[in-house]
Amino acid sequence: MNHTSPTRRALAAVAILGAAALALSGCLASPPALPTEAPPQPTETQAVPETEAAEPTESQETTPPAAGEYAYTVDDGLGDIWSFSVTSVDDDPPMESGEPEPGTRFVAIRLDGDHDEGDVSFHGCFEMLVVGSDGETYDWADTVAVTAEDDIFYAGDTFQGARAVVQLPEDVDPAQIIIRSTYGSPEVEDIVLDVEQ
Known about the structure:
The chain is mainly β. About 15% of the residues lie in helices and about 40% in strands.
């Protein structure tokens, strides 16, 4: 497995933070492009089902998928390559800790994945977002204080049925899922999936 030095990732993070600081001061110049080692991934728009939460079976937890079964392979250009699929969007997922705030509810993006190269976790490599039926975008990062069963935060290099929990207002349905490369965006295009109601 090819491991890119942590220095490249640290330099990318410093460049991103520096650009954000300049933007806040109103002095943002055009930022330099981050180096990439692979061509950009095309934006994908497909449909994923919205389902009721289901308890994973033991085979779902322990049996890795066969090679080639993943819908997407994303190279962030900085040493990490993940292959993954979004399998469903579940309403009211089972939780280990935490509850939705009053007037809101949890939905879970269900994912299967395999780390092809690198050493950064899935949740470190990707932003997981839900576009609601109200047109607003809701971020998995806003719910890191709660823990779902099979939470994506604890997923290893190969996983099935991991949950990324997102909090939505009670009257808002998930309309789209966006999986965005944290370090590769915007050169690495978003994976965009419509949610079937």
